[in-house]
Amino acid sequence: MAKGIEIREAHFPGRAPIDAYGNGGFRFADMSHRGSLLCLPSGIHGWDMQEGDPLTVAALAELLSEASDIEVLLVGTGSKLRPIPAEVKAALRARGISSDPMSTGAAVRTYNIMLAESRSVAAALIAV
């Protein structure tokens, strides 16, 4: 019996700077990914979010499970700055994480700088 193609969750096991973004995706670690990303201490994960989707606590469940290793969350909200909803900010704050919304381009640049400084940073990046 043929097994067929196995679709696995997108995941890069490690921390890496984002080399490029745009056209609906990102490039990092000599790879490209179409869609949004969560850049966490455990690695870079595909994230099922699109520009305009509401940011919820549930959408950040994977990030919240690694909260003890994160001090700052950069939220790339797409092409335009959108505020982080109060309930999401409260859930992050309860776990000791400060959050900063910005356009995805600004979040990528800030993430790369903070990563180079070995800071405890994570990023939630909505593809543009």
Automatic annotation (TrEMBL):
It holds the Pfam family DUF498. CDD domains: Mth938-like. It comes from Neorhizobium lilium. It comes from the Bacteria. Gene3D superfamilies: MTH938-like (3.40.1230.10). This is Mth938-like domain-containing protein. InterPro entries: MTH938-like_sf (IPR036748), NDUFAF3/AAMDC (IPR007523).
